[in-house]
Every structure is written in structure tokens, then in C-alpha cells.
């Protein structure tokens, strides 16, 4: 008797099957040029099945990006030290976690910050996307309140921090942080420079 083909989803869990299949395609193919029909084929469902949960391909891509933002926020919060003794001790592990997320998930990271996809649907103003930025805002706001960070518009400071770490992440994804050009620890050096610009010099104790 011929074995029944494996179905990659359980009855009633079609939405998750579509999302997990698309995430796997994003990882393996390293881009998001696939169609809903191809996602359906690989998920082992009819070509019309994805439309029960996603009206079009863009809707599926936005959900994948939102999952990326959720996971990035979790990674940053998990990396946050409980009792940092300095701004450098707090920013460094969070920044390293950010870059690690991007380099571990290059296609997903590029999708999350895709100008084309994001502008089309206002993706970057979704609360799930903003939640990542709010981790940085919270850290800097607390630092200002504690007198360890310079009193400047906090969103401007957060933008500077994000621009630096986001840029380094893209350079790392593209393999451009070669030691011969940027040294053996470019991220740590960049973070130290960032902290020098943010922190209020503390008297020696």
C-alpha cells in the first residue's frame, strides 16, 4: 500500500503552514520573489488556499516582516543586561544581538527594511515595527533621566544609534567588514564611538 504523502500542516492550521513555508523559502532562496502559488505548492495545499488568509503576496510579505520585527525585539530584550554598570555595558550586548539577528537572517532582515515593500503599505509605522525602535528610545530615555546621557532630543539620539548599527549590520551581511579595512572588532569600536557621543563624562571614582 502506497504511503500517504506527508502534509506539512495540520487541519485548521493553514495560516501557520503558509507563513512557515514562506519563511523557509526566504531563508533558502535569500529573497522574496516567490509567488503565493509557489508557497502553496511547497506547503502542499491548493493554489487558492493562501488567499483564505492573505489577500495578496504583499500581505504575506508584510506578515513575514512583522514576525521579523517581533523576533528582533525579543532578541534585543533578551540581550539586555540586568544591572549594567555603564552605558557601554548596556549598549554593547544589545547592539551585538541586533547585528547577529541580521547576519543570521539576512533575507528576512532586508525584507523588514525594504523601502519598496515598506513604503507601499506603511509597514514601518506599524506598532510591531516601532516596538524595536522603542527599545532604543527606552534605553536612552532612562539614561537621560539618570544623568548618564546628554540632554538632547531622544529621537535624534535613537536615530543616530539605529543608523550606525543598521549600517554595520548591512555591511556585515554583505561581507564588507574585512579586518584589513576596518580592524578586527569594528562593531565594538563603533559602539564605543557612539557611546562617547551620547554619554555625559562621569567623574573618576
TrEMBL record:
Gene source species: Rhizobium giardinii
Keywords annotated in UniProt: DNA-binding, Transcription, Transcription regulation
Descriptive protein name: AcrR family transcriptional regulator
Keyword match Coiled coil: no
DNA-binding region: 35-54
InterPro entries listed in its UniProt record: Homeodomain-like_sf, HTH-type_TetR-like_transc_reg, HTH_TetR, MT1864/Rv1816-like_C, Tet_transcr_reg_TetR-rel_C_sf
UniProt cross-references to PANTHER family, sorted A to Z: HTH-TYPE TRANSCRIPTIONAL REGULATOR RUTR (PTHR30055), TETR-FAMILY REGULATORY PROTEIN (PTHR30055:SF220)
Domain HTH tetR-type residue range list: 12-72
GO terms for MF: DNA-binding transcription factor activity; transcription cis-regulatory region binding
Keyword Transcription: yes
